[in-house]
Amino acid sequence: MKHLSCFTVGTLLSIWQTLEIAIIYSTQQEKQIQLLRNSILKEKITNKNPPPEHPTTVEIIPENEYIKQVAEILNGLNPSTFVKLLPKIKALNLNTEERLSEVSKLLYEKAVEDPNFSLIYAKTCQCLSLKKQSVSNPTDASNFRAMLLARCLNEFDKASTG
């Protein structure tokens, strides 16, 4: 009690009120954190069995329509829409070499045309990097990453020699 003697009653009351407010505030934060945890848990439980990456029934879309859909997704891609469009990007059915090649070409061109969003395009490439064509005898360049790397190398060689 010796240390408290230098404080006036008003000062002690003010300190007490400040502590009381801090306790109420931290309790509210704990409630918000708990609500957030509950919503994350609920989301994990509801998404326990996510749809397979390669659905058993494949919707047949003409190649030009497919490329048009991919281009629309990429045109809408920016830092604020990336999280919203990520499921659409992951759901891309890159089951043929032609589709892998076209999508890698589109992404490469978008990244070169708009360097301000190159990080977003790099994240998109990372999401697609392990996508493979579904054939019995895949070639060395049968996944998205290999095709994109081949495209970059080809463009680099063109720039170096031309």
UniProtKB/TrEMBL annotation:
Q: Where is the signal peptide?
A: 1-21
SUPFAM superfamilies according to UniProt:
ARM repeat
User: Gene Ontology terms, cellular component aspect?
Assistant: eukaryotic translation initiation factor 4F complex
Which InterPro entries does the record match to this protein?
Answer: ARM-type_fold, MIF4G-like_typ-3
- Looking at the record, the residues that make up the MIF4G domain are 68-158
GO terms assigned for molecular function: mRNA binding; translation initiation factor activity
List the keywords (alphabetical).
Answer: Signal
Task: List, alphabetically, the Pfam families matched.
Answer: MIF4G
Name assigned to this protein: MIF4G domain-containing protein
Q: Which organism is it from?
A: Daphnia galeata
Q: What is the lineage of its organism?
A: Eukaryota, Metazoa, Ecdysozoa, Arthropoda, Crustacea
